[in-house]
Design goal:
This protein has about 190 residues and is mostly helical. It is about 60% helix and about 5% strand.
Length: about 190
């Protein structure tokens, strides 16, 4: 099911599309919260390469580790972006975190067989970046609709220039808004 309450409007659309009325998936919510287009475009070539390497290493670790090992690493926050300059360094990091050298060996073997896949990370990330703003807008507008359906006055307002902060929207809501507030929000 969904993590956040959703409006009856979105719930109805999800049912119509055969997605059930549970809410947005965790994947959709993660997409909405990802780096914005502005930040992605401002990344240096080196930062894009580091991102691609981290996504590749993490994906390969997910492929070779057992569920138990993944849970252990998550509990230790060992999957947080460690600054690893190579797959060897990442394999050593995971082996050390789990106190098991076979983890690194399995990861290195898998990497050798699948390293060509890393070239797909940045194009896939570009697609995610294109969809991120749409997903974020859907979440924000749906929260506003949810409040309105609950009988509250609500509006989405920019709080600063998106160049200053890409996460520049706020939902303003009131049970009894003053005429000045409703005029200001138009």
């Amino acid at each position: 099911g969904g993590v956040f309450p959703i409006s009856a409007t979105l719930k109805g659309l999800l049912v119509e599309c055969g997605r059930g009325g549970e809410g947005l998936s965790v994947c959709a919510l993660r997409l909405a919260a990802q780096e914005t287009r502005e930040r992605w475009l401002d990344m240096s070539g080196r930062a894009h390469r580091q991102h691609a390497d981290h996504v590749t290493y993490r994906s390969m670790a997910d492929a070779v580790l057992s569920q138990e090992e993944v849970q252990q690493l998550r509990a230790m926050n060992a999957f947080r972006k460690p600054v690893c300059k190579s797959i060897q360094e990442y394999a050593d990091h995971l082996s050390k975190s789990l106190h098991d050298s076979s983890v690194g060996e399995r990861l290195l073997e898998y990497h050798e067989a699948h390293k060509h896949m890393s070239s797909y990370v940045e194009p896939f990330t570009a697609l995610q970046v294109c969809l991120q703003g749409v997903a974020e807008s859907l979440v924000v507008l749906d929260w506003c609709a949810f409040l309105r359906e609950a009988g509250l006055w609500a509006a989405v307002v920019p709080v600063c220039d998106p160049v200053v902060s890409p996460r520049n929207l706020a939902i303003v809501s009131s049970r009894n808004p003053s005429p000045a507030l409703t005029h200001l929000m138009q």
